[in-house]
Specification:
- There is one protein chain.
- With 421 residues, the chain is an alpha+beta fold.
- The chain has 20 helices and eleven strands.
- It has two domains: 188 residues, D-Maltodextrin-Binding Protein, domain 2 (3-Layer(aba) Sandwich); 204 residues, D-Maltodextrin-Binding Protein, domain 2.
- 45% of the residues lie in helices and 13% in strands.
- Helix 9 crosses helix 19.
- Keywords: Signal, Transport.
- It comes from Deinococcus xinjiangensis.
- It holds the Pfam family SBP_bac_1.
Length: 421
């Protein structure tokens, strides 16, 4: 789906961000703005400034990943030196590799190997380390512990069917005094977030991963169709009709305001849910996402830091990446923002576990998360993902049923593959 980007003022903003500081080197860092991302990014950059005497200018990236990718591609295609360090989605290295510095040998091998091997693999393209892991992600289920107890439930749902039953019972009860209450909120907007949610449905129902590791298109099957039809059945029942406009923050705001029993989101929502102004502080549980009959599934997310080939300050930019991706900064981000470390050793850190107890109990969820098919589809991944999310969206809005959607999608993907991936 084509996006319309708000580039008004972009040139001026980047020009200001790239002006040289009075002393030392100035590095421009593109940061995300979802949840606490921007604030923690600024604070980490400030600590590096103090340590090195250099200056970091922050460029605030769009919230939606599709919008952010479009902006990045525009800058990189122009070989712009305005941004030195980019925050990259885990599925982007193969798409953007030609524009980034190979960090192999520029960051000590021991520091690289300290990360989860799967994430390093995702950041490596044709033997070149395109980015360093900053934080990892996997979809999880948030639930109201107080409401489960109130309605007689002792544990989080294990299956999607159980979730639907529990969500409906709680929703019906709560709506007697709160008409704004929802059973289940998630990411239903047609963007990369929907690809993540829907991939979890597919895998948990045994419907494959859209495209398998060999590059074979696998989406056209009955279980995939069933998964999509099941999700569509939630809309207007346990999920609001407006769910097809929700991204991460819309879902989080509803849950955090006390107006939902369950929510699918990323780990970052935990720390915000425990904040002083949260209406559900102390009432949140976190569990693995339910099964559709083939086990639990969580989509692998996470963000990484890469240095642009067009940067005029590559040495300083690499040092900034090394610093921000190091254990000290990852620990701070885990404690203050609930961002999952990419370093296995930090999952045993008592300070981190005290703030994020589910990091320990759901460790296997994070380490066995399902990757989107960016590897086998390479530079065509974005087209594949957009075709998939659009097909899913058609089912959610009632335009088509699941089987018709996956049949057509298989044909569309074959056309994309025909041009080579």
């Amino acid at each position: 789906m084509k996006k319309v980007f708000a580039f008004v003022g972009l040139t001026a903003a980047l020009a200001a961000a790239s002006q040289a500081a009075a002393a030392g080197v100035t590095v421009t860092l593109a940061c995300g703005t979802v949840g606490q991302e921007l604030q923690l990014c600024k604070e980490g950059a400030a600590r590096w400034e103090k340590k090195t005497g250099n200056t970091v200018k922050i460029f605030e990236s769009p919230n939606l990943t599709n919008d952010r990718l479009g902006l990045y591609q525009q800058q990189l295609a122009a070989k712009s030196s305005d941004i030195d360090v980019y925050q990259l989605d885990i599925v982007w290295p193969g798409l953007l590799a030609d524009h980034f510095v190979d960090l192999t040998g520029k960051i000590p091998a021991a520091e690289v190997k300290a990360n989860f091997a799967g994430i390093i693999d995702a950041d490596t393209v044709d033997g070149k380390l395109i980015a360093m892991p900053w934080f990892t992600d996997a979809g999880v289920l948030y639930y109201r512990t107080d409401l489960l107890a109130k309605y007689g439930y002792k544990a989080a749902p294990k299956t999607w069917a159980e979730l639907a039953t529990m969500a409906k019972k709680i929703q019906d009860g709560e709506q007697k005094t709160n008409k704004a209450f929802n059973g289940f909120v998630w990411q239903g907007k047609n963007y990369e977030g929907l690809t993540c949610d829907a991939l979890e449905w597919l895998v948990s129902f045994g419907g494959g991963t859209i495209v398998d590791k060999t590059g074979k298109i696998t989406i056209n099957n009955a279980q995939a169709a069933k998964a999509l039809d099941t999700a569509a059945s939630w809309i207007g029942s346990i999920s609001p009709k407006g769910i097809t406009t929700y991204s991460e923050e819309e879902a989080r705001n509803i849950f955090q305001s006390g107006n939902a029993a369950f929510m699918r989101n990323w780990p970052y929502a935990w720390a915000l849910g425990q904040s002083a102004d949260s209406k559900v502080k102390g009432k949140i549980g976190v569990a693995a996402l339910p099964s559709g009959g083939a086990g639990n599934a969580a989509t692998l997310g996470g963000w990484n830091l890469g240095v642009s080939k067009y940067s005029k300050n590559q040495a300083a930019a690499i040092d900034l990446v090394r610093y921000l991706s190091g254990p000290a900064e990852q620990k701070i981000r885990a404690i203050e923002g609930g961002y999952n470390p990419t370093l296995p050793a930090l999952y045993k850190d008592k300070d981190i576990l005290a703030k994020n107890p589910f990091f320990g109990s759901l460790y296997s969820v994070f380490t066995s998360a399902v990757g989107r098919p960016s590897g086998p589809t390479k530079g065509k991944y974005n087209q594949v993902s957009q075709a998939f999310s659009s097909a899913v969206s058609d089912v959610l809005i009632g335009k088509v049923k699941g089987q018709a959607a996956v049949t057509k999608l298989a044909t569309d993907l074959a056309r994309i593959k025909g041009r080579g991936w």
